[in-house]
Amino acid sequence: MTEYRVEGRGRVNRAKPVKFTFDDKTYEGFEGDTVASALLANGEHLMGRSFKYHRPRGVVTASSEEPNALIGTTRGGGKGRFEPNTRATMQEIYAGLKTESQNKWPSLKFDLGAINDRLYMLFSAGFYYKTFMWPRSFWDSVYEPFIRKAAGLGKAPTEVDPDHYASRYLHCDVLVVGSGPSGIAAALTAGRAGSKVVLVDENSEMGGTLLSEPSVSIDGQPAWEWLEGAMAELDRMPNVTRMTRTTAMGYYHQNMIGLVQKLTDHMADVPEGAPRERMWRVRAKEVVLAQGAIERPMVFDGNDTPGIMMAGAAQTFLNRFGVLVGKKPVVLTSHDSAWYSAFDMADAGAKVVAIVDTRETVSQALLDEANARGIKTYLSYTATGTKGRLRVSALRVNPVRNGKVGSAHLLFCDAVLVCGGWTPSLHLFSHTKGSLHWDEEAKVYLPGHKTEDVHIAGAGRGLWGIAAALEDGTKAGTDAVKSLGGNAGVATYEVADDRTGTGITQKELPTDRSAGKAKAFVDFQNDVTAKDIRLAVREGMKSIEHVKRYTTNGMATDQGKLSNMNGLTIASDALGKEAPQVGLTTFRPPYTPTTFGAFAGYHKGKHFEVTRKTPIDSWAEEHGAEFEPVALWRRAWYFPMAGEDMHKAVARECKATRESLGIFDASTLGKIEVSGPDATEFMNRMYTNPWTKLGVGRARYGLLLGEEGFIRDDGVIGRMRDDLFHVTTTTGGAARVLNMMEDYLQTEWPDLKVWLTSTTEEWATIALNGPNARKVLAPFVEGIDISDEAFPHMSVRECTVAGFPSRLFRISFTGELGFEINVPARHGKELWEKLWAEGQKYDICPYGTETMHVLRAEKGFIIVGQDTDGTVTPQDAGIGWAIGKKKPDFVGKRSLDRPDIVAPNRKQLVGLLTEDPKTVLTEGAQIVADPKQAKPMKMIGHVTSSYWSESLGRSIAMAVVEGGFDRMDDTLHIPTENGDAVPAKVTSTVFYDPAGDRLKVE
Amino acid sequence: MNAPVTSFDTVSVTVLPSVARFNLRIAPADLSVASAAFGLTLPTKIGQGAQSGDRAAYCIGPDEWLLHAAEADQQAIVSAFAAVRADTAHSLVVISDREMTIGIDGPDALALLSVGCPIDLSRLPIGGAKRTVFDYAQVMLIRDAEDAFRVEVWRSYFPHVHGLLEIAARELTVGL
Fold this sequence. Notes:
heterodimer; A: alpha+beta; Ubiquitin-like (UB roll); FAD/NAD(P)-binding domain; 7-stranded mixed sheet; B: alpha+beta; Gyrase A, domain 2; Alpha-Beta Plaits; 6-stranded antiparallel sheet; 5-stranded antiparallel sheet; 11 strands; elongated
């Protein structure tokens, strides 16, 4: 038994001692201990150094809002399993757990960084803003590295986290957050009524306050017996699920709550393959928030000395863990609850030195109980200082009479237990953007107008005492069931020895010393003091949002759970305004720090993101293709042979295709079946082109605009029947185009009898291009004649190819004789292999997207999204011919007449040929008319596509240029990174075979 | 066909053989024509299914049905609908190759699907179907029994969905 462990108290398993290490020293605790309770049992309060001043800090709370006792943990002893900033109050111990203190060098007890503490006068509010402003040149080299080094708690992990994180969706009738008396009562009520209930709590066991209040009795049973019975009843109900170690970390729209369940962080032996955490995405019909209240610190000089902690935490350490946090504690309070903590400490064998209360009067019953235990009481007193650096040794107290602080004396002690009132926990409610209501009497914010189907119960809405919590939880449960359309029985609970009480809250405590020199901390985690907040107000910050950002109060990982209300009280005092006029900062998810793993879930490694692959992808991989991502697809980019870089491979692929035969996987192209008697009318309205006269078996280039007249998408469209079009879209545009079409069909033209079905993945599409394309294809085609006369350019037929049912197009995106063969996807690879084998006679060459881009650029074919950017009209792109002039309307038609759309000086798509044919321009480079003009130069356009053309033996480029069509043969200049400018001549965009003779292969 | 199966105590994930699959769009008023052509009375409520032998139909939109049949019957069904097209406007599109089908069976089927599917699966009636998502991928979810489902997913999303189902199925065996 360690020195501070109390026989007969606590819920830890005395039969199971557990050894763990803290800063390489081995400590012993029991199963059920947290790191904090086990260290306290060993008399260790000092657990870390603060963020800014590196002041020694001890544990302050026994719960998840802990601001000080943040430690590094190494779980499972494994590489990559280090976690900084673990809250020692939440981390359960297990055999082999390694923990370490943070923000210290060389050691926790002697830290050189504490020099900041001596220089504290320099580190006032707004310090960063004031100090690091000038000179500008110092920012990158001096200030930022300094701030980065100084900022942050703990050290970031450097290894990849090897753990597995899980996630699931969950639907329930009633989600109850918090398993104190009100949460349990709500769960019992809804569970008994038959609702599907989920009860969650962030602690390792349920019970909340009841775990710290064993002396209360409910329905004639001691609290813990009643608790055991309640848990057993809940577990017997098949409609109730209980989850411990589960934090409701965010409350989102329409009762979607994120829960993070810690599954293995408390285990010495983690089962193989077990996930570390699971994110539950819960959709609850009703939510009961029973989160309780958070005890408020008191603000006075030296209030952060190790050994000073919340009185309620001391009570929890004693009753739940069987640990006395001190043997000679002083209690400093403004709330009755701390008196009971003092009594529990005294009854467990501590010599309580005194109870110091800032209030002038307290109930006689409390005074009597204190007297009975021989505890001195000081009413209307203030605390003005502490002794001790690594551990508190005395509290300096003074009487306050008529607002004047009298002379001080010291109360020697080994712990100070503080209670400055209680703050209802509003965080999750605040996530819903529900309004808050200021309770003038209690000086707290309470839940106000609700925007979700949520009920708040117990101390979370300002109630106090276990009887009140049980009654209110029952009511919340009943209300939830009623909202679900059911009826719940209303249970009543007989509570005896309930320790109800009242209290007040206050600004920083009055002092007889200089308030300007007091290190009276408001925010322990960010080292913000009362004088920082007053300085911020003096320097003009009038809203709490500004005070917060100027001082960083409440901006640490605890989101100001302990500091916000004290900060607000002090700021409103400094401003001479009531708290509601100064405001309250917004709480945002997550409620407590949450791992990236929990958010990422399964999305890592191979499952980081969907990678769509075509039926022919595996062939490309086997043949050494390099891939590039296009939308969610990965596409074969080029097929390098031994020793080839991309440039050489692409040059070879281009040459082979133009000279004989290339084969290309075009399966990713979007495909939409437009079918129905009004299909032609629909196509006429959607696309710029006329479709009425397009014969069955013919294909046409289609251009799609947005309502504003700019190019959205394009593709070749084949007419399969009078009432059926085979529409193709760009790879990235497939889903977007279908959505846009459906949108018009459903909202504008519901009268049209036409239907749309995505067939992108029904078909595998293989493009054959080159003078020998027909020769390789012909032996496989059955059912049609594919000669030039019978099957001219821009034709489509249904037939069989290699025995597979097929839609065969004769089209070309390369300028060569070209075919695109669509077969059911499952046959894609087999057809490819057959064509590949047959194509060997013609030195068939597989090519990827890069060669496709070069070949089309040589012909001046645009790529939507590369040569257009959402501001390019058909006229700008030089494809005004695609507009059906006689059509009464199509999407975007009216916009094409707007004055700015027909203005002469718009950016227009032109070709560029560099003076030096070897120079390949950079895509995206800006263009100027005169490179000698003064900077900043007027930029008149940019390069959209630029390649080396092996066919032409020179570079080619396309660009959008202001008034480009009127600048033919002008020389423009493209400034480069190194300060030069490359001269280039404006040309047509058709660089290769402008007459189109190469399509006409007999 | 020997389907690849990943089987654990409480759930198995199976790649199912292909079927003839169609997307049918038709005005609800004309539904009887479609029922006659398909040889099965098509359900009228979204989410509902109807089965007879190896034919099945699921209503998945106000004017949209998913049809299943034996692969050998695909052409006959296309012809049957083509014969009535002139008189009754509709769209029948073969999508047999668009999707692949994964079977999920066992007491943990619901838990496994809850890994990626945000809807309340307990409300999906047996014999019914729903268009939903599984971890970014649009899927058709068909419920064949209390603990037996089929997931139809577009071919290119199949590796992602199937891979994730296998990871999660393995996770279920740990029991945490």
